[in-house]
Amino acid sequence: MLFSDHLVIIRGGGDLATGVAYRLHKAGFPLIVLELARPLVIRRKVALATAVLEGHITIEDLHAQLAHSPAEALAMAHTDTIPVLIAPHLDGLEWHPDPGQLVVVDARLAKRNIDTRIDQAGLVVALGPGFTAGADCHAVIETMRGHWLGRVIWDGPALPNTGTPGIIGGKGAERVLRAPADGMVEWRLAIGDLVKSGEVVGDGGRTAGARAV
User: What integer pLDDT is reported at residue 1 of this predicted model?
Assistant: First the structure.
């Protein structure tokens, strides 16, 4: 089996999806990353989804570029540049003449199964909770921090979502900033800036945004 004969479709371009893309790209798989027109990614500096917002992004030695059509994405997939295509839905898009050589990876980390089915490709892999291997997909990758992180599950579900962020530096839920209102966010600070407790980091809609803890 030649890796180059298979096409990998990665749904989502967040930080975990970017790690998946990096490993598969280095292994020689042609791949396409599918994203939303307005990505929900948080760790933008290390996420291929940022190519949707900025046209391109380079993370270490991995380069990604926004593709404007499925045909452009397919052509780019066989180069050193990873295509990022705006495509919220998978159905209706024909990627590979042999479905058995198509791989779909749901790396959106929605904590639930939105629309992934085991019959969408020859191999369907999903990351995190909300999926059951053997029913929704062929394999589930455990994303919970701890001993089982990265485990490949071929039968059964991933660990359930706890709803609580992992503890880092003694902080858990405090690490998450929540918008006070719906709307577009305008950041006052950039990723990497130092903040003090209570400092406003951005504005959501017309309301003062979340404050650092």
Answer: 64
Which among 155, 75, 93 is positioned nearest to 118, based on CA atoms?
155
CA distance 213 to 199: 8
Q: Where are the domains of the chain?
A: 3-157, 172-213
Top-confidence residue, 183 or 112:
112
User: pLDDT: is 36 or 4 the higher one?
Assistant: 36
What CATH number does domain 3-157 carry, 1.20.120, 3.30.2010, 3.40.50, 3.30.70?
3.40.50
What's the confidence (pLDDT) of residue 90?
85
Rounded Cα distance, 130 and 180, in Å: 27
Task: Please state the three-class secondary structure of the chain as a single string.
Answer: CCHHHCEEEEECCCHHHHHHHHHHHHHCCCEEEEECCCCCCCCHHHCCCHHHHHCEEEECCEEEEEECCHHHHHHHHCCCEEEEEECCCCCCCCCCCCHHHEEEEECCCCCCCCCCCHHHCCEEEEECCCCEECCCECEEECCCCCCCCCCEECCEECCCCCCCCCCECCECHHHCCCCCCCCCEEECCCCCCCCCCCCECEEECCEECCECC
- Closest residue by Cα to residue 14 from 48, 37, 62: 48
